[in-house]
Each structure stands twice: as structure tokens, then as C-alpha cells.
Amino acid sequence: MASDSDSDEDFVTYGTPLEPLEEDEPLKKPVPLHEQTVKDEKGRYQRFHGAFTGGFSAGYFNTVGTKEGWAPSTFVSSRQQKAEKQHVRPEDFMDDEDFSEHGIAPREITTSQEFSSGRKDAVREKARAVNAQAALIPGDTLLEELISPARLSIGVELLRKMGWKEGQGVGPRVKRKARRQQTKGSSRVHGVVLPPAGSEDSEQEEDDDDEEFAPENVTFAPKDVTPVDFNPKVGVQGLGYRGLDPGLALLGGGAAEHIDLFRPQSDTRSRLFGGAQRGSRRGGGVAGQAFGVGALEDDDDEEVYHRDSMSRYDTVLGGEEPGDGLYGWTAPQQYKKKAEKSKDASYLGKILEGFTLAQKPVRDKTIFPPPDLPRDYRPVHRFRPAVDVKSLSGVSPALAEALKTSRGHMVKEEPEQGGRHQLDSGQRRALLGEDTLQGPSSVMELLRPEDRERLKNLRNSSNVPATKAAPTPLSQDALKSAVTLAGSLAARAAGSADHGHDRGHDHGRQQEALAAWKGIQTTSQTFRPFEKNPSKQARYEMYLNRLKQGDKDALEQSLDSGVTEWERSRERDEFVRASILYRPSSSSLSSRFTRAKKEEDDNSVEVSRDEEGDVDDKQAAVNMKMFGKLTRETFEWYPDKLLCKRFNVPDPYPGCGIVGLPKVKRDKFSVFNFLTVTESREPPAPPKPPESGKRSRWDVSGQKAEEKKKEEDPLSELLSAARNQTETKPEKTLPASTSTNHQTPDSRTKEAKSADQEKGNKDDQEEEEVEEEENRPPMDLFKAIFAGSSDEKSSSSSEGESEDEEEEVGDIKKEEVQGEPQLINLFKVPSSSSSSSVTSSTTTPNTTSSRHTAVVSTQNSTQVEEEFGPKLPPPSAALSRGGATSIRSPAEEEKLSKRSKDKKHKNKKQHKHKKEKKKKKHKKHKHKGKQQKKSKKETSDSSSEEDSDGGEPEQVSTEELLKRLKSMKSHETW
Amino acid sequence: MAATLAVGSGVFVMTFPQPRPQAPQLPQHLLTTIDCQQGAVRAVRFNADGNYALSCGSDKSLKLWSVSRGTLLKTYSGHGYEVLDADGSYDNSQLCSCSSDKTVILWDVATGQVTRKLRGHAGKVNCVQFNEEATVILSGSIDGTVRCWDTRSRRFEPIQILDEARDGISSLKVVQHELLTGSVDGRVRRYDLRMGQLHVDFISSPITCVCFSQDGQCTLSSSLDSTVRLLDKSTGEMLGEYKGHKMKGYKLDCCLSSKDTHVLSCSEDGHVYCWDLVEGSLSLKLPVGKAVVQSLSFHPTETCLLTAMEGRVQLWGLEPEETVKTEEDTMAS
């Protein structure tokens, strides 16, 4: 390009340029090493004294700071930056452990009081107290008892609201007889921590209550349970060791009457459990096992290490009175017995903390003496023949060896009785709580009747030896199991040790396999279960083939004879199993599964789910200028994931596979598919004009076609359309090509004219046309319509139509005659550019360039220009002439003005013409929709064609129309 | 501007009592005329910062100009047919252009080489635009689809094809996460990527050009019924209607001024019409020439306008060269 050369100087420069070198400037000498100095930020020299001693000198004589010592931190006024001031808290200097000492709350997440259960829980407290007794320092929990939070935990409050009361257990109410009034208070069972030491009164089993008397139909809350305090044992003392009792040690026990804790331990505990005070009170002093007698103790006659009192022992044979106030009363025998039983425990001695006496005595372990060796026993081991371990895949060799030696052959899988694979489908269904599967319940139902019959015959007649070995229900069982589960089969086949049984079993299944495969001539590839082992697979296939032929000895014949018996049996099992499992589906499974009708449904088309609403309403709204809700529609739209990523926007529908508008599949060939734009099955926008005033002929005919279609069968319509199409196809191209070839200049003029026409047309006319184009219904519709019309015409042949046709063509001709003088002008303006073929105008280059190409393409290109909405403005005349001059010459000016004038003129003319047409339209509105529609539709196209065969207007027949349609279609496909 | 505009109600409120409304700041003086020598200029576009201009010629070339000096910087040739639209990336490192040859080309600005040639449209490509980060090129074609091309990957297939339009796409604009398309089927579609929604506004007349307002609250759409409409983006209600120009057959541009004060539109009668956005009154009728004003582009920040007519590109500014304009300069009528 010529302008490139001068534009090269106009590049933008970046950065700061280097200083220009002056020629006479002396070269800079390099600075010697000793002159290279280092300065600090204040410009003072810094001495370098070696890398190992710290690099440069710093501070005051290489110390830190200044002459005065540490460099005082420079004063910074904090007036402006108070907010930023760092407050150092004492906590920063403290250890975490010390926080609590100084009352600093920990800053960690703890359970808030609301949810903590630190409330007064009588039972838990009791348990704690009990356990505290056993602690090293008894009475540990005293403090905790004194300080108790006032609030209840949320769980307790909830329970209370549900009707729970303190002291009760949790759970459903129990129907139980009322407790009788006990003299010793409420002695309950307290789980394992119950200390039964000598107090048989506490052993009040629930069973006991059963014998008591109480009114019927009264329920009680369940008994409360004292939770076990699972404190780990921390000391080194032995089990049952009891620490010093502070009650006795410190207070001498005398004043300890009020507080439970300060009683001697056994008493305390019994009190805790509501037990009665017992026996004599000790004098005091330090008691317990930890210490002997203190120095201050004066009674020397006490035992030193362990004090025991007679009160711990029963003095009466046969036990004390039960303490329930029933002593002497002839209570039922059972009660007595129970009491006695528990009483026995007390004689066994002291029971350790946390232990109770077993209710049931442990059964004696009977020890059998070792068997007597036979006399002739010789402890020499005899080895069994080796089995190929490698063939047993999945098992370690050692294990396999072990199994072999132990059982003679390796069991593949020890079936677990009642395991998952042992259940049948019914049982599993019951376990899972599922509904019964829809479909045949029995295998026999799955089989075809003939198969069933054959099976029955087989079982009855030919299988006598088999049934002898194995009873009939067994084979039935085998049938069932074969279908239901592979696992059970495998397990059963491999796992059963009983060989005779196995045999019968096997035989039954062989019969079944035979029944399944017999007579089936499937050449298609079936499942190959032993693909990994080709020889085995070959054997299996041989077996199958024999099965198909109905060979009863198929199995035995097809087995490999060169292997061990065990392997043979194994293979036999496998083959039978496989043949049953992978039996041809026609017999068993076909009824359960429905085959997909078609892989690819060609007859359906994807249609967007959300259809646009009625265009009429919108058009009305637009006319009323009521934009907004009426004209606005919002759809769900799924952008591509990558697109969101590129736009830096989060995916609005994460994890959704849809892209674009959601689509639904619909029948492709359904006419309604295309007729219904709205959900209400109304005719679509194109055939129905939004405004009656702007009604184009297209629309009328469309409506008519619609109506017609309703009457006729759409399918036959389509068919006839297709037929017509094929008929007219060969005829179509030839005349078109000739016409365009001969008439190119003419057609171009026409095109130019039409272009101008379009430009200069009236508003509504314009809109109308565009409307037509934009809302063009799909080809199928056209086909259907026009095929129908042509059919109709051929059959009924209304004269009015042809008349109209004639009239219209005549009209067009007239128009042409009228427009003749202008044609030159019209031609000139756009084609002045076209004549100079280098510069391109909107319309002409297409035609010029493609003139020598196929006719269809010419039509295409011309069509393209007119088919789609707004055009590009044509380049000016100045441009077309080379475009070098930017100033317009007067001649051009003139021409332009002329052009505009022409336009005006033409406008007028067109206006008139349009009026005419309108009139016409009103006139023949009724019976002449389609033809008009077509001729109007492709103004340029058809006009040129009409021009070409204008001599015989009657010839504008269905063929012609179809031709045009075809051309339209080819444009679409282009 | 939008602060003074009570959206939706149609009531206009002045937030600040201005002592005297400023005279309209409009580019009414011809500063430069560039003869592009590339056939008819189909589109002229400012780059992102407004220092450079792109002109799309019907002789298959795309040219880069320095606006201030009016000099040609580079010619990009590689299209097979006339270039219809172009856009520059935010960092001025890349250009994209579309053409009647159904392709979209991504150019390297400095070398002038074709970085990528994107084929896939079934018809001529009317409009093309980068997204904000130049990671995606969006192109709208006469085949009724908008294709989203990835510039980051080597993939030659579009990321997504938006085929919702029932007719050709005549114009599209991208702002942040929103894509505005105008179609010949008379609908303005706004794709909201963040919300995953598609809003369709029915205008009924074929759309020739769509624009977002600078504040992103309104959309401007010109259609072949010789009307420019300002719609509220969120509700679709019409806020303003601008008439008087002539746009009946050609795909001509419209735009908003850099401060959203005025609406500008090309006209087939050789003028650029300029309306006051709020009042809807015609503030300026700029005589560009005798032919059709094909394209126009408003400077992103300044009061500066580029127009294309036939083979010329003209730059219009607030003040004539070297002379200070005063307010009594009458508007051209």
C-alpha cells in the first residue's frame, strides 16, 4: 500500500531515550576498587570489615545502638494513629495455664452453659458420690455439690417438658405392679455399682415386684438407672483398696450425722442408696486400710491394720429378717427363695467395688481327657499327592496347601450360612422392606410355554435316573436358584461337601442348562465367560454347541480329559453354571426387560422447552408502546461452564449439564410441532398477522392453508408434497438456468429495482416484508401447504385463480412498462459500481461473481441479499469510480440528486402500486392466497423469472410455484 | 445521568439544582476527514481508549488509524470478503474482525498477522466483539447464531452457540457478564451469564443496532421502523423513543454519548441525528454528507465522534480546530 510507507514514521515510541553520546566526551574511567565506598542512608561512610565479622560496620563501634546505648525508639506521635496503636496485654506474657489463676477466661471454644449438663442431677450425683467414696481422697465432690449451677441443661428441660420428672428413668412407661411400702425406704437396683456387702435388703429385683400386689392398668415410669462412673483406676493399690475415710479420720464420726458424706463409708453408701442405718457406730479415729492405728489413738487393743467389727458378721444363722416387714409372714416360696439366693452372696465374703455377684453360677468347665491313642498308632506323617496350587488363583500358596492337606481339596469359598449371598431375592426383599417386583414371580412363568412343556417332559420322563439320585424338588430348587443368584449357586456348588447330594444337584442343573439351550440356533456371539483361558473357552463353546443340539452327555464329552478329577468337577460346575447364567435371553429374561425401540430416534427433534408467548399480544403492546412486561420474556438460559469461566462469572447452574435453553424432544414430523409457537396450539406468528391492517397475502394464505390442513390429513399432505417435489425436480432447474443466463442484466436491473423499491417503500410495507421473512415457517409447512394447493388446483382447477394470476402478471408487466424510463437510472446508480468490478456494491458483486457458477448459486446470492433484514448501504458513486477523490464532482452531485428524485418518484409510483395491490387483495382475498403469496414473497426472484416466462402467464402453475419453493429451500440449506 | 432518571416511572428528577443547564456538549465540528481507500467503510470503531480507530472496508481490508493524527498505522488483510465489523481488545494487543466470508479473524495488532481464523458461521458475520478481558470473541451472524469463541485455547469450535434468534443477528454488545444481541426477528435478547437468564424484548421491527448505556442500566436499540428506543434493562420498559431520522433498509449504527447524555444514530439521509436522552428532543442534526451514514462510533471518554460514509471516515469534535467555540454557536438544523 502506498500509504504504508509514510505511515511507518508515525510509530509510537515508548520509554525514555538514552542520552545522546557526544563525540568529544571523554570515556569514563572505571572506578578503582578502593574508591568504591558504601554509604548508609544518611550518606555516612560504612566500613567494610569482612564478611565473617558482620559485613559493614553498624551501630556504635560495631555494637548495637548508639554511644548512649540502645537507640531510643524515635518518638512517634500517636495522636493520629490511636486506632492502630498496639495494646500489649498481660496475657501475652502469660502462660496459658496461668490464665485461670488470674481469672482470665480462656479464649477457646467451650461448651456454653446452656448446653453443658452441669446441673444438679440427683442420680449422677449419687453415682459420683458413690464413686467418690472409692476415690483416693474421698469427699472430693463436696465442693462441686456446694457450688451448683442454677440452670438446667437443655436436655433436661426438654425431658421435663415431655413429662419427665426427676428421679424417673427415661423410656416408655412400664406396666408393673406397685412397689409395696418398704420399711427400709426405696431400695432399688443400681446396676453394677450396687454394693451388696451384707445387706440383702438392697437386692430387690424387678422380678420381685412381679409378685407384689398392685392395681391393674397402672403404668409407671421406668426405673432410674445409676450410670456407671467409668473412672480409670489410677493408683497402684490393689483392687478393692479403700482410702482413708476423712469422716472418721478428722471428725471422729461423731458430728457427722447430718452430712451423708461424713459418715463411715458403708453407712454413707447405704444412705446414698436409701439404705437404713445399720448396726453400731464406731467410736471414731482413723479407719481404713491405708493406715494402722494412729499414734493418738488410745485404744490399743484394736487391731493394727484392719479393724473389723462383729457387726459385719451375721450373728444369726439363716439370715436376718428380710427387713420388709414381712418377717414371719408366710410369704410365697419364690420370694423366699430369691432372697435366699441373694443372701448366699453375703457369705462369699467381701465383694470388690464395681463387682456384683453373678446371678447364675458359672457352669463348670468339663474337661475331657485326651483320647487314648490306639495301640498301633505311629506318629509318622503321610503326605498326600500334590495339587496344582497355581491354578487356584486368588489364594496364597501356603493357604491353599494348608487347605488341601486339611480337607483334601480346596474349598473356594466357605459359604456363610445366612450371609448376603445365601438369601434369596424374596428374603432380601423382606429385609429391605421393598415391594414385590412387578412381573412374573416364578421362573416357570418366564419360560415360554413350549419351553415349560419341554422342561416338564424332561423332568418327568427322561430324567428318571437323575430324579432317583436327587429328588424332584431339588431340581426345582436348582432352577430357582439358577435364576435368582449366581452367588448362591457358586457357593452351593463349590461348598457342599456332600458329594452324592452334589451330584444330584449337578445333574438337575445340567438338565436345566440343556433345556435352556436346546434347540436354540443362535449364531450371534454370546457371552464368553472364559475369555482369559482360550482352551477352556473352546471347551465351553463345544459344550454349548452340544447343548444346543440337545446332547445329554454334552458336559462329560466336552470336558478336558487330561486333567485331574477335581479340576474336571470344578470345570463341570463352572460350565453348567455359566450355561445357565448366560443362557439365551429369549427364554428367561426377555420378558423382564424391554428392548429399546430404537437406538437413535430419528423422528424426534429437539425443541426448546420454553416457547415464546403469543406474538400478537406483543405486537399489540408494541403498537401501543407499552414496552415492559408485555414485551419482555425471560427464560432460563444455561451458559457453558467454560464461558462462565472466561467471563469470570460463577456458573449460575453448577453441576448442570444443560447448555443453552433447556430442550425437550418432540416428534419431528408432527405438524403441530411447527404450527404451535405458543402452548395454546394457536397458529404461529407468520401465518397470522399481528394487525389486520398490515395483513399481507402471505398471511391470508397461511391461514387458509391452516384451515385446509385441519381438514386434511397432514401425513397425506406431506406425502403428496414429497411426491410432487420429486416429480418436479428435473424440470425445475433447466428453465431457471436458461432464464437467468439469458436475462442476467435484466434480472440485475430488477434486483436493483427491487432493492430500491424496498428502500423506498412505505413504512408498513417494509415491516410487512421483513415480518414475513423473519417469521418464515419451516419448509415442511410450505411443502405441505403448497402441495395441498397444487393438488387442489389440479383437481378442482378454479378459473378464478388463473384469471387472477393473469391479471397480476399483467400488472407486473404494466409496472415494468411504467418503470422503463427509470430503469436506466436505476440501473445506473447501483450498477455504476458493478461495472467496475473491483469495487463491490451490496447487490451486484454477488451476481457478477457468481454469474458463471451454478444457477442455484446465483439465485442464492441474490436471495441472500434480500432474504435477511437490513442491508448494507451501497458504496457511493464516487467510490465505485475508484474512490480516490473525496470531494464530490458536480456531476456526481447531480446524479445523486437525480437519484433521490428518482427515488421519490418511485416511491410515489410504488405507493400507487401498493394501493392497487391492496385493492386487489381485498378483491381476491378469498380464493387466491398462495399464488400471491409466492409471487410477492420473492419480489426480485420471481419478478425476474416471471419476466423470463412472462409471455405465457398461464404457465405460472403449480410446477412453477414448486420450483420457486425449491429454490427457496436451497437457499435455506445453503 | 442515570441518577437523574427515575427508572421505570418515566419521571425525571434533577438531583442537583443546577444554576443553568450546560449547553449540550456535542461533537458538531469536523476535525478530520480520512479517506480510507478501502472501498466503502462498513464500520468504524474506536479502540478501548479512544486513541485509535478501526475501519472495516469492503475491499476485504481492516485498517488501524491514529485518531489524533489521522494517519494509517496498519492494514490487516486476510479476509476473503468485505469486513463488516471489528473490535479491539482492552489492552490493544489484539483485534477481531468479521466478514462476509463467514469467518471471524483474531489479529495480532503489532505484527498484523492472523492469530486465529474462526470458521463456523453459516453466513456472513455481521458483528463481532471481545468480552471485557478479551478471552472470548462473540460474533453474530446472519445465520441467526451468536458464537462464543475462545481465544485462550486452541480450540476452533466455539464454546457455545446461542441460536435462540429466529433470524440474523445484526448487532451485539458485551458488557461485563451481559451479552446484548439485536436480531432481524425484531427482538433484543439479553443473556445474563451471572444469573443464567435470557431476557427477550420484543420490538417487532428488525433491529439494526443495540447498545448498553454507560451506566449499564439501559439498552438502546435502533430498528428499521426509523426509531431508536431506550429500554430499561431490568424491566424492559421503554424510557425513551427517538425519531426523525431515516432508517428503513440499511443496517446502521446507533450509540450513546460517552456521558449518556445523548442518543446518536446514523441516518439514511446523510445526517447523524443526536437527541437529548432525557427530553427526547433533537439536539443536533449533523450533516455528514449526501450518502448514507453507515457507521458511527462515539469516543469512550471524550466528546468525539467518528462517522463513516462511503469511503470516508470523519472525526467530529466539540471544538473546531484551533478556534475556541462559544455557546452561541447554533446547532445545525
Automatic annotation (TrEMBL), chain B:
| InterPro entries from the UniProt entry | WD40/YVTN_repeat-like_dom_sf, WD40_PAC1, WD40_repeat_CS, WD40_repeat_dom_sf, WD40_rpt, WD_repeat_MORG1
- Cite a GO CC annotation: catalytic step 2 spliceosome
Q: Where are the WD repeats?
A: 34-75, 76-117, 118-153
- Protein's GO biological process: mRNA splicing, via spliceosome
Q: What is its main location?
A: cytoplasm
Domain of life, per UniProt, equals Eukaryota
Name the SUPFAM superfamilies for this protein: WD40 repeat-like
Its subcellular locations are:
Cytoplasm
Q: Which UniProt keywords apply?
A: Cytoplasm, Repeat, WD repeat
Member of which family?
Answer: Belongs to the WD repeat MORG1 family.
The name on file for this protein is: WD repeat domain-containing protein 83
Task: Please name the source species.
Answer: Labrus bergylta (ballan wrasse)
